[in-house]
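Cross-posted from the bioinformatics board.
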Amino acid sequence: MSKQTINLNVNGQSVTAEAEPRELLIHVLREQLEITGPHIGCETTHCGACTVDMDGMSVKSCTVFAVQAQGKEITTIEGLGDPDKLHVLQEKFKEHHGLQCGFCTPGMITRAHRLLEENPNPTEEDVRFGIAGNLCRCTGYQNIVKSVMAAAEELNKPESVT
Amino acid sequence: MSATAESVQERRAALKGLGTSRKRVEDARFTQGKGNYVDDIKLPDMLFGDFVRSQHAHARVKSIDTSAAMELPGVIAVLTAKDLEPLNLHWMPTLAGDKQMVLADGKVLFQGQEIAFVIAEDRYIAADAVDLVKVEFEELPVLVDPFKAELPDAPILREDIADEKEGAHGARRHPNHIFTWEQGDKAATETVIGEADVVAEEMVYYHRTHPCPMETCGSVASMDKVNGKLTLWGTFQAPHVVRTVASLLSGIAEHNIRVVSPDIGGGFGNKVGVYPGYVCSIVASIVTGKPVKWVEDRMENLSATAFARDYWMQGKIAATKEGKITGLWCHTTADHGAFDACADPTKYPAGFMNICTGSYDIPTAYLAVDGIYTNKAPGGVAYRCSFRVTEAAYFIERMIEVLAIKLNMDAAELRAKNFIRKDQFPYQSALGWEYDSGDYHTAWDKALESVGYSKLREEQSQRVEDFKAGKTRKLMGIGLCHFTEIVGAGPVKNCDILGMGMFDSCEIRIHPTGSALARLGTISQGQGHATTFAQILATEIGISADDITIEEGDTDTAPYGLGTYGSRSTPVAGAATAMAGRKIRAKAQMIAAYLLEVHDNDIEWEVDRFVVKGAPEKFKTMKEIAYASYNQAIPGVEPGLEAVSYYDPPNMTYPFGAYVCVMDVDVDTGVSDIRQFYALDDCGTRINPMIIEGQVHGGLTEALAIALGQEIAYDELGNVKTGTLMDFFIPTSWETPNYQTDFTETPSPHHPIGAKGVGESPNVGGVPAFSNAINDAFRAFGLTHTHMPHDHWRIWKTANELGLHAES
Ligand code: FES
Ligand code: FES
């Protein structure tokens, strides 16, 4: 099958990829662009391990063709913080034991990031509903919810700069 | 104390040792997307493998035509059983003493079975080629019901061993029969039951389910033909066992094989087994001379890798009129699927199912388990439990409830009346175990008091009245559970896997500047070993946990160990860590005595240093001792500071817990709503309370899944009906409640630090608590027992059968 050239912006950088029309965004991210933070847990839109941000919306990148990402801005876990300055969500997940095996974590944090952008003052119920598209087998969610709530609180502190 | 500015307490706190809720060191990489899982591995020229699988549950394979697939550009090879046969790799041994086809050899025995392995340049081409392989089948009658396996017209599944009267676990009475395993005193138990005041009987089915970790199974094999070395990365819960098996199977000497478990995205028992994909990736790499990656998709994971449970447990429990239990009888029909690939210690074909007397002092008991072949996927792994312990706990905790109904007694009171008392430990059970320690009454009373048990029962009675009066359509269930686990397999004298004793190991190196590296034979899959093992060691050797690196999972560097499953890491490898730490300390004592110019006996250990008795200002810290061990000639002492320990546990450990679940059940919709879940765990000495709590949350959520909907279901043709996450229930954050955790602390007397292990307790205790709540909701309306999983439809059906939908 013939390949097409796709230009997109990933984590603030313009990149080019070659992909067949049928290729999934998650595969192009992971295998061509070597962005291995987003994971594959199902390839059927159920688990959310592959969640990335596309033009300000959470998408499951196993359910987006790479060619659909032409001209889009993609943010993955790698683009949220860096080792010298972690994103507040990354800090709070560490602090509140919001992860165990870590496999769901990149998708979970990326989703939580979008959730807090859309709703900076979520109730626990809002968080539970808002991350319900991301499955976790290890934590039972209790500490994930705690981490997201703590991040929201931190981000809402007047002195906090993100 | 002038020489020490910090107090003993301050120094102890600085170690971040036992009992500290230390933050996890693993999290930095995971939260930044920098974990290194199998599918993240990318090697130059790497090829990708994919399976042609059977759509039939039972069929003869008449022919396999790979020509069209081979013509597809980018396809390198297609392997079938014929290609593996000359290497003697078309079959492989299972962990349970059976053998399993790697690729279909003449027939297929379950839907999803591996038939051919396509090797291609990328995963898309491999998938295209899979579609182009033409397999001609001749369908055979399908056996899905284990109770029909020995009927005269039953199809014979395993023609390869049809005539063998002896299996790995004794006599076989039929070609579809695998083993009979008996424990306890049959005659005495039958007598007790025959003479009892009261006998309750029930068939308790623990349905087939699957561990389904978020990361599926996979491997990358790389054969370096120049040096004759094979490297295998994979999702292995037991990398050393995989190395030994790979060596035995491939004929490559064990020192030329390196097995690496990188980060593992959850295991829960799924990654204990050896799968055809691992073998095929190895062969493919040998054949092509290139690295080959195989990663299964979710459907393959659910339908072909190891399932869990599928135990039909027929029970009888006998008691006096007053409710003192006198005997327990159990016959289990175990559906093992097409190959017996249970991951149990060799001598225990039904795992530790004989822990089924639970927390109770039952003087007489008998257990028999019959293993049966059916046309389903092989497995029988311990899904977040020690070998078959969750089945045992579910059985006894249902039988207690059924007995309470028969006696018309409160189920909490019945339990308390029969608990093994504190003064009875160590306790010898009727089915052969020696329980190490416990204080069940204290835990139970604490649990009942915390939830306000008698108030809950009053509310429940009121609810029944209101329901009858037409004021509500919701019933209330109170699910009780007091479980006893048996973990930490296990003593080498009776526990082995493929002949390898189930010890575990730790090797420690103290660096000259006083930091340390410890390597273990286990492998973390999210339990936070890098965090907790450092804590155990910190307390033992007085070096801060922050200055200790823990390494696992690389067989070239880690000492041999049996891996992580069955909650064995803390009881076995944790003990090895403590013991190796004590060896370090023993040598350090000699060095310190020399440096302080006193006799060994004149100094004592204090947190992080040796202090001269009676002269606290004279001391040497572990850091100073470490430096001295490398830079001074000390008479009679070898340079350096290293130790290794292989720990063979003298006994298992027996964690326990008391759980209470309160649910509302909507009779008309079948929707259940968890109002409260209280979990008290006693896992002995607590290493890291934060991690324990996290393990409990996770285990309870897996229990919730199993009890309320998660199953691997087959239709009568052997089609898997729950092969995707659409049908296979995994609770989301929306249906998962907040849990209330609590603890008591009864150390294990035989474990060096008294720890018992906790990762699996919440699953073992959680399933009965959830199920008992559903059953209990309908107790007032005549229900004795209804099978899991209690999904909305089944709950509705129960209500309907009880006549609760009739027009009032
Ligand atoms: S991999 Fe995309 S939702 Fe599961
Ligand atoms: S931390 Fe393991 S799946 Fe979420």
